[in-house]
Q: What sequence folds into this?
């Protein structure tokens, strides 16, 4: 072997020959899917807000809409109490301040829905969504199909992951929002 021959250690590995373009392509594809998942979660919250406000006859009949005097929280929480939920004392408290509970719940649905649909304020929206999902999980406890877990907990973890991965930057206005609210990290 001569001094000019390349040693095996100096040869590029297959991964190095591929370069960063393949890794970046995979990353880009995954983040696009993450952005689409964020849009789907946002639409879920926004749709719940619209259906409960106007009674679009999906989950909420027109006569039970918020605009017609219905309570968006009383049925779910009342059913939880009647079903022997171990946290019924908390739900009774929330129902005792019900006009406030309804307003906070509906603002949460609207705020999370709009923020996730636009991809702005995803950190704050994710914390709010995770809190709402966790409270819905606790209100539905015990779960009939699984004694410890249901999709509300999965979604609570998923929305926090979306915030940690800056899901608003992908298929959304997150990058523009970051420039606008620079220095106000709680608004990201």
A:
């Amino acid at each position: 072997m001569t001094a000019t021959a390349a040693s095996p250690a100096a040869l590029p590995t297959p991964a190095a020959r591929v370069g960063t373009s393949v890794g970046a392509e995979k990353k880009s594809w995954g983040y696009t899917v993450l952005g689409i998942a964020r849009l789907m979660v946002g639409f879920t919250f926004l749709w719940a807000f619209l259906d409960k406000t106007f009674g679009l006859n999906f989950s909420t009949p027109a006569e039970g809409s918020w605009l017609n005097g219905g309570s968006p929280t009383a049925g779910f929480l009342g059913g939880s109490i009647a079903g022997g939920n171990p946290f019924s004392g908390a739900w009774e408290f929330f129902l005792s301040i019900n006009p406030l509970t309804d307003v906070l719940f509906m603002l949460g649905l609207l705020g999370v829905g709009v923020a996730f649909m636009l991809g702005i304020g995803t950190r704050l929206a994710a914390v709010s969504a995770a809190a709402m999902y966790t409270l819905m999980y606790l209100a539905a406890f015990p779960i009939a199909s699984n004694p410890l877990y249901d999709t509300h907990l999965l979604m609570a973890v998923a929305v926090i992951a979306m915030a940690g991965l800056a899901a608003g930057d992908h298929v959304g206005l997150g990058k523009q929002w970051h420039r606008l609210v620079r220095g106000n990290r709680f608004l990201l």
